[in-house]
Amino acid sequence: QVQLVESGGGLVQAGDSLTLSCTHSESSFSSHVMGWFRQPSGKEREFVAFIDWSGVTTDYADSVKGRFTITRDNAKNVVFLQMKDLKPEDTAVYYCAARGWGQNPRMYDFWGQGTQVTVSS
């Protein structure tokens, strides 16, 4: 069973940067599409970014394009979400997801426990 562990969340100020990490427990990581999603308090989970197995294909939500970057290290079983110019509306619990495709969270099979990102104005 794949286990995903996110880290790197915290409380930052608007305009700051933060990098989230997600460690995948299995060697199958290198064949899995990985995604980042977020869920603001009281709202539905929403797509943030995904990256294909090779790292060549990525996609971003319009709200984060140009500010967030998703990358992966297949040698270390880790996917990253580099976040720059953070805004209060980026405040949410951020989740890592594995083995899926696209922007629909229902298309992903495995999920981490989430890490809180809070951006103060």
Give, in order, the helices and strands. Answer: EEEEEEEEEEE
Mean pLDDT: 97
How much helix is in the residues?
Answer: under 10%
- Low-confidence segments, given as residue ranges, are none
State the end-to-end distance: 40 Å
Description:
- By secondary structure, this protein is mainly beta.
- The chain has no helices and eleven strands.
- It has strands at about 5, 10-15, 20-25, 35-40, 45-50, 60, 70-75, 80-85, 90-100, 110, 115-120.
- Strands 2, 4, 5, 6, 9, 10 and 11 form a seven-stranded mixed β-sheet that branches. A four-stranded antiparallel β-sheet has the order 1-3-8-7, with no helix packed on it.
- Strand 5 and strand 6 (about 60) form a beta hairpin.
- It is globular and about 40 Å long.
Question: What does the secondary structure layout of this molecule look like, with pairings?
Answer:
Blueprint: E1 4-7, E2 10-13, E3 18-24, E4 34-39, E5 46-51, E6 58-60, E7 68-73, E8 78-83, E9 92-98, E10 110-111, E11 115-120
Parallel strand pairs: 2-11
Antiparallel strand pairs: 1-3, 3-8, 4-5, 4-9, 5-6, 7-8, 9-10, 9-11
